[in-house]
Amino acid sequence: MAKNVNNLNYNEDSIELLEGLEGVRKRPAMYIGSTNAIGLHHLVWEVVDNAVDEAMSGYGDLITVTIHKDGSISVQDEGRGIPTGLHKKTGVPAVQLIFSTLHSGGKFTESAYKTSAGLHGVGASVTNALSEWLDVTVFREGKIHHLRFENGGKLMQPMEILGNTNRHGTLVTFKPDAKVFSTVDFKWDTICNHLQESAFLLKKVHFLVKDERSSLETEFYYEDGLSEYIAIVNQNKTPMNGIISFEDTYEINGNKGIEPLQMEIAMQYCNDDYQETVLSYVNNVRTHDGGTHETGFRMGLTRAVNDFAFENSLLRGKEKLDGTDIREGLTAIISLRIPEEILEFEGQTKGKLGTSDAMAAVNTFIYNRLTYYLRENHEFAVNLVRKCIDAQNARKAARKAKEEARKTKKPKNDYILSGKLTPAQSKNYALNELFIVEGDSAGGTARSGRDRTYQAILPLRGKPLNTDTVTMEKMLKNEEFATLINTIGAGVGKDFEIEDIHYGKIIIMTDADTDGAHIQTLLLTFFYHYMKPLIQKGHVYIAVPPLYRVHKEVNKKIAYQYAWDNQSLEDAKKAIGANYRINRYKGLGEMNAEQLWETTMNPASRTLIRVGVEDPLLVEKRVSILMGKDAGIRRKWIEENVDFQTVDRFIDEVK
User: Fold this and answer.
1) Cβ pair 588, 450 in contact under 8 A
2) pLDDT band at 460 (very low <50, low <70, confident <90, very high)
3) How much is the pLDDT for 119?
4) CA 321 to CA 392: how far, in whole Å?
5) Is 620 among the residues known to form the active site?
6) What is the model's pLDDT at position 615?
7) Whole-angstrom Cα distance, residue 171 to residue 63?
8) C-alpha angle 76/82/88, rounded to 5°?
9) Mean local confidence (pLDDT), 94-118
């Protein structure tokens, strides 16, 4: 029923004017994407971007990031120093304007920066807006300039001169506001990985990272840039060839006053890798969602390989190689520096490049350079085409098998499904949940305790294959994965269509032990390689079953609490009181259906961990180390990163 508009309390007094940075604090996710760990670290990247822009323009070759014990973090460069003079229009120091006003800075004109990372970002002002306090010290023109903001960007100390100096550059220190973020704990790995990327992209610039909380310190510096980046990503793989690297400039629009577009591409094929890894950057910013430069790269690569194959009569008739077959086993890194006049990103967080000129530039660049390279390296080129043909044949065989299965009334995979999957009754796929459960025992308990309307149960028999070390063809013959692919119902590999999934949530529910963790890792490796959009779109979760149940009888009734870790176990003991008993759940099957429901499956009371890809480089390295063939490298990483003494002590305290 329509409401009487005359009675609505909506007039000129309802219009709220948010001044300064208040709008950022009101809707932080609009500016930094989220208020979780990703958004928290985005504050750092905005300040780092300013330091990188200085180095990229040739000012300074050292950037230092320090995590302090009080939870603050600082970024220092050796650039020119942010301008401190009075801004003509506003009458306030330029440095104050930059940190207190949205869309201010030196990146909106090519006079200060020919290329920069920050033009379409939210800027350091947003870092200020979402901080408990922020300090700026500028070393410029022989003076030390200082100002301070508090409580979300309010100027507490106007710019002052602290003394004389012969240094130059900018030091920014800030402490994120715990009232804004779900976590304010800066992650060493996350920050190091981001700065390592920057070091790869900015050859011969030093990136120093310090953590005062743990006394950790490391430095990233690379002479050869992208080639060294490729070498680290592929360090645990078997390369088919040496690293190919191309670098050049490209004139835009007949060079009508516009600076040339700078391009650098490094690439390498691996014999034991059946996936495609393409990482792209624009002005040193990772373009997670690709864009015109990645499209141009794929077009030029496909043309160059097909042309060589035709010239050397390696293909039958007029049949061409598909781009996906050509990119199987390829690791490529694309880095562009684009002039400000034509730079276009889609979205505030610069996830996707929209510059149309980049497509033609990269297409032409990679086609010309790779065509010449293939002709000069004939043996490698022939082997590459043969590898692509093998990939094409395997893809066609898989598609043929899939089509034949669809024509059959009772496809082979339906027989596989019938004895294992307990389906949900609802056809509302967005609300449906698939629990992938370890073993038949836990599967039986989950079936009894589930919500039959929306929850499906798929038990696994034993451990799945490690899909990081087997071909797609072998993976498709595996009964566990064949069942899983058919259950999800959206295809696999390049044929995977996220719109066709039968479940809004795919939940891995395993025992809380090393075998359970191993199964989680194997399944996540499969999803990452063959159904990556599931992870990228947030459909994959890890269930968190309790480790303990603390209980005792009180007035002929059982009082109990569950515990998930050491601290919650102590809390549960205190809550239950003396004479308590403890059930240690070694597996999901040790819980009855009611207990499994209320702790792990009930949407109203359970805890789920959503799986995401925050940093592709970090994921690639972790998957390569943990799931690769080199047990020595895996063991070394585990010894350096897992505190077994803490785990053993935790178990001993419970016994």
Assistant:
1) no
2) confident
3) 38
4) 7
5) no
6) 61
7) 10
8) 165
9) 63
| Beta partners for residue 160, in sequence order | 146
One-letter amino acid of 309: A
Q: Which residue has the tokens 């920069």?
A: 116
CA distances from 45 to 35, 126, 308 (A): 15, 11, 42
What phi-psi label fits residue 250: left (phi over 0), alpha (psi between -120 and 50 degrees) or beta?
A: beta
- Which is the catalytic residue, given 404, 513, 594, 648? 513
Instruction: Using only the alpha carbons of the chain, give its radius of gyration.
Output: 28
The beta strands (E) that lie in 72-142 are given as 73-77, 131-140
In 101-134, alpha helices (H): 124-129
Q: Could you tell me if 583 and 552 are in contact, meaning their C-beta atoms sit under 8 angstroms apart? A: no
pTM for the whole thing? 0.72
- Sole residue written with tokens 């035709």: 310
CA distance 219 to 217: 7
Tokens of 173: 């220190």
Given the residues 132, 273, 433, 511, select the one marked as catalytic. Answer: 511
Token pair, residue 179, equals: 């009232």
Name the catalytic one among 22, 311, 515, 594.
515
Q: Are 33 and 178 in contact (CB under 8 A)?
A: no
The rounded distance, in Å, linking the Cα atoms of 176 and 178 is: 6
pLDDT at 207 (0 to 100): 97
* Per-residue confidence (pLDDT) for residue 1, from 0 to 100: 37
Neighbours of 251 (CB within 10 A): 12
Burial (Cβ within 10 Å: 0-12, 13-18, ≥19) of residue 555:
exposed
Which residue out of 132, 438, 468, 615 is catalytically annotated? 438
Which residues, other chains included, contact 629 with Cβ-Cβ below 8 Å and sequence gap of 6+? 236, 272, 469
| 545, two tokens | 């079953």
Structure-block tokens of residue 190:
């996350």
Query: Can 511 be counted among the known catalytic residues?
Result: yes
Q: Which whole-number Å values give the CA distances from 335 to 63, 374, 425, in the listed order?
A: 20, 22, 49
Structure tokens at 237: 């793989």
**Length of the chain as a residue count:** 655
The top-scoring range by mean pLDDT among 171-185, 332-346, 350-364 is 171-185
Please name the residue ranges forming H helices in 377-432. 378-407, 412-418
Beta partners for 267?
244, 332
Closest to 292 (Cα-Cα) out of 355, 369, 371: 355
Largest Cα separation within the chain, whole Å, is 88
Please list, in sequence order, all residues whose beta carbon lies within 8 angstroms of the beta carbon of residue 47, skipping any fewer than 6 positions away: 75, 124, 127, 172, 174
How many other C-beta atoms can be found within 10 angstroms of the C-beta atom of residue 155? Answer: 16
Closest CA to 617 of 232, 202, 208, 117: 232
Strand partners, 262: 249, 337
Burial group, residue 542, by CB count within 10 angstroms (0-12, 13-18, 19+) = middle
Active site residue 438: yes
Structural domains in the chain, CATH included, are 22-220 (3.30.565.10), 226-399 (3.30.230.10), 409-545+585-613 (3.40.50.670)
